[in-house]
User: Fold 7-carboxy-7-deazaguanine synthase from Dokdonella fugitiva.
Amino acid sequence: MTTVAARGAAAGDAVVSAGANAVASSPERLRITEIFHSLQGEADAVGWPTVFVRLTGCPLRCSWCDTTYSFHGGEWRTIDAVLDDVAKYGVRHVCVTGGEPLAQKRCLALLARLCDAGYEVSLETSGALDVGEVDARVRKVIDLKAPGSGEVARNLWSNVDRLLPHDQVKVVLADREDYDWAVARVREHRIDARCQVLFSPVHGRLAPRTLAEWVLADRLPVRMQLQLHKLLWGEEPGR
Ligand code: SF4
Assistant:
């Protein structure tokens, strides 16, 4: 997924954990690329101080991916250890991202545990894997892959039926062809009637102003967004 931001304050500085003590222990492990603290850069929770849990691995290869470092490596961590790390930051919002987090089945247990602990939990997912077993308390941010991504064939359209009103569908657009494709798919599947739809330009490839003018001209029922972390930190690695 494309949300990244600054690795923030040191773990251990703050200590509010929204009921994390009530969480039962678990030996289940996940492969983790990084856990860090920053501002949410995208979607409905944009701007909230958030702890990001980035899971390792992704079966897709989007042409504009900016988190390719999450494809390999990482470190095995128990769900308990992940919850302990998250609690140290003392924030309310947690975003589980990747890579493609759902590529690891135990992601489902992690999401449920985070919800049980009282966090506001979001999941950033490619839209290529089934979201049917994701805890209903989680705000899903599901990508639709436009042609410019090179992964348009991976869209799992049955996920549209899994959308809840608090979820969001995000389309990252590289050019006018992507835009026209996205408008047609939103109308065809009536996605805007199910949840918020977010249009975002590929950083450095589609001018934000151009996309804004297209959205206004077409009176689209979508929210345009820019990636806050790119505005704050540009292409700096690890942010
Ligand atoms: S789904 Fe695409 S953008 Fe997200 S991590 Fe995988 S390759 Fe990158």
Q: What stands out?
A: Confidence is low (pLDDT under 50) at residues 1-25. The chain has one domain: 27-232. Residues 27-232 form a domain with the TIM Barrel fold (CATH 3.20.20.70). The two ends are 13 Å apart (CA to CA).
